[in-house]
Structures are given as structure tokens and as C-alpha cells.
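During the reporting period the student researcher (J.K.) took over the structure-prediction task from the postdoctoral fellow and processed the backlog of single-chain submissions. One of the processed entries is reproduced below for the supervisory committee.
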Amino acid sequence: MGELCVYVDDQGITSIPGGLIRDIPRVGNDVRRLRLTGMFAPWQQFSGNFVESRIHDAEFKNIDLTRCDWKDCRVTGVVFENCDLGHASFITNSFEGCEFIRCRFPDTGISDCVFKECVFERCDFKDIIIKSSHLEKTSFFDCETSNRIIESSLLIDTAWRSMSIDARMIFGNFGLLRSEFENCALVVRTPDGEMLKHHWAALDQIASMSELSPVEYLRYRNFETEDLEADADALESALDLTNWKGDTTVQASFGAQLSSFAQFLIELFERDRLPVYPLLILHSRNFEMLSFLEGKAEATGLYREIAGVHWILARQAASFLETVDEWCKVLSNTEILHVAAEGPVDEQYFRNWFVEVGLSNVKVASVRPRNSPVDLAIFIEGHSVLAGFIALFLSTKTKLSLSKMPDLMEQEGNGGTVRAKTDVFAISMGLAPSKGAEYQFSIKTLLPKSFLFDLQLSMNVSVFQKARKVLVELLSSEQDAQKGIHKH
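J.K. obtained the following C-alpha cells:
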């Protein structure tokens, strides 16, 4: 670690030979819009704040930073060792590759911050609260706690060792998994403030006695099963925003929680840990709530939050619909599709199954043994049937699966790949002509009936899960009913 240096607008460089924070140029009481790197002299006390600054490849050792607020800063590759960071606020900062060793955080509030690949080791967390933040690949080792530490945040690939973990932290955050905890004690706060230790086997009983909301219960089930789809009822209940009535007493908290939920689903989808259908369901339910709140003056703040979530989810829906459109183009002239499916060699079984999932107009041509799974041949009669089946098939796939257009689906003609002359969907973004500068996102079906949206809105999680288990892979297509296949 070299000499402490200050960069002004990434041009002028000022060295601080003694490494004293007081010698850093300030605006009033703030270190503002500077880039800092190098070693800060140990055993000093700083009175001031860091604002809109970048600090990288630096070391704070034995420094008293009490009442030092951090706002809109980017901190990368910095070591904080034996520092006092208490009685302070951290707001909208980004910490990446940082280490906090034997640091103290009494009466410290952290909100809307990002921690990536950071380590907290032997820190005093007895009076800290981290809210509405994103923690990724971040580790907590041998830290002292007396409360839930973190709430209403997203935690992905974190690690916890030799600590006391408040059960409310599990119920109050998205993404925690049981396997991420090593040699940790489960604790529950009593009404008089005492922290009682429990065996981890008692967590189910604790959850049942805690009157958890649908979202809290889903967090708990994801923690236990490490698979968001494992409990279909819990996922279905959390995706139904009408079940969030108990969370609407404070609009800002409701909006923040909804945003965090959407980000959690997207994170899992981006990491290939979740198929796309939960995002599509939440997009539809969120849009329903957005429409309900439109024009209600008393819910202006919540409307804005939900509108932000709508925009995030709309991009995912657009990507999905573009993929459905692409597949429909490739298969536009297809009469028969062959699908690898899980089930018996029984045509009636699959006929009943298509009725069950709402695709009664999909006709079964044949079911043939194909080692495992079976070869299911289905008739496709018109764009509506094709779009509905393809949408159901793709909705159960992960990002990796959706990103691949199988070679076997390429239908070669004399002039190359055969594609439909017209699109199935029209997707547009831009300024709404009737609303001035308001940005608008539009998805319009070019089919006689919006079969896709009817499909999405009428199905629940259990149906999507059944489809995921049955419809394994698209094998091939045929232009006619040859090879001994007859319509039923």
C-alpha cells in the first residue's frame, strides 16, 4: 500500500505525505468528489464526511471515524482494520472487494448500499442495521450480534460462520440459504429483549408461531429448501399481491419490499436458478396493482414505486415475448411437433393433461416409446395454438435454455431457413403520443386473440411446475402428418 494520494477530477494529483485525513482538501466538512488511494496514517481521528468520492486500494487502520457519514461513494479494494464506524449513516454507497476487520458499528445505519465480495471479520454488530441493500458473495465471520443485523435486503451467495443469527434475519431478507451457515447459533428475541438460543431444528416451529406474511414465509421456505420452486403454495401466495395487505400500512416499505422481491427473482433467473414464469406472473400481478392505483392521490408514492418495478419486469417480459415470437416464426408452417415428455405411453393421459393446463385445443397425434422420456407428437392448428403451446413450453425454461435456439428447429428450404412473413407480437418503447414526455412500454399481440396473456393470467404456479416436469425438450417438427401419424 503506497503513499496516500488525492486525485481531483482524475487529473491533478496531490500526495499527503503524512497520510493525515485532515490534510485532504474539503468542501466545508466534507471530503467531496475526490479520488483517494493509498495508506491513511493509523491512530488518527477524523471529523467529517465522505460524499460522492471514490476510494480504492487504500487502508484505514486504527482510525476513529465516529459520526463520519458516507454517501454516494464507491469504495473498492479497501481494508478497514480496527476502525470505529459508529454513530454514522451509510447511504447509497458501493463497496467491492473490501475487508472490515475488528471494526465497530455502534448505532450505525446502512441503507441502499451494495456490498460485493466483501468480508466482515470479528466485527461488533451489536447495534447495527442494514436495510434495503444488496449483498453478494460477502462473508461474515465471528461477528458479535444482538439483533437481526440486516432487513429488507437481497443476499446472494453469502457466508456466515461462528455467529448468533436472529431468526428474524432469515424471515426478513431474500436469498439466505441454510447451507451458507457454519457453526452459527439460532437465536430469538423475547418480548423483554432477551436473546434465547434454539436448535436449528426448531426453526419450523418458530416460523409457525411468528405469524409470517406470505413474503416472509417464502423467504423461510427458500432458506430451508434452497429452491424457490420447492413449495408451490408458498410461491403462489407470495406472487399474489392481494395477499400483501398486511404490508401496506407503510407505503414506502411495501414498495421497497416489492422492488426487492422483483430483484430477487431476476437475480435467480439471471443465475440460471429459476425459470421465467415467476417473473411473468409477478409482472401481470404488478400491472394489475399499478392500474388499480392510477389516479389515486393518496397512493402517489406507492404508485411510483410500483411503476419502477413494472419497468424492471416489463423488460424481462419483452425479452420473453421476443423469444416466443422467434420460435413461432421458425415453426410457423408446422403441423406436428415432437416433444420429449415425461409420462406413460398413453395418448389419453396427455390429452387430459393438456385440458388440465388450459390447452385443450392442442391435439395429441401419438405417444411413442423413446427410452425415457417418451416422444409426444402434437398437432398445431393455427398461430393461436402454436403461440400458446410455445409460451407454456418456454415459460418453464431458465435463461440458459431461453438463450439457445436449437439447431433441430431450423427448417431449411431452398432459400435457407423458413420463417413467417409476419410477426406474432409487436413490442415498442418510446414516448407516449397522448401523454407528452411520459415513457411508454407496449406489447401488442398480432393474433386474433391475446392467447398468451389469457394463458399467463389464468395459470398458477402449480400448473407451470407440472408443465416443467412434463415438457422436457422440443425434438423436431413435421410439415405434415406423414410417417403413420393420424389425427385423433
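The committee noted the following: The CA atoms of residues 230 and 351 lie 27 Å apart.
J.K. will present the remaining backlog at the next meeting.
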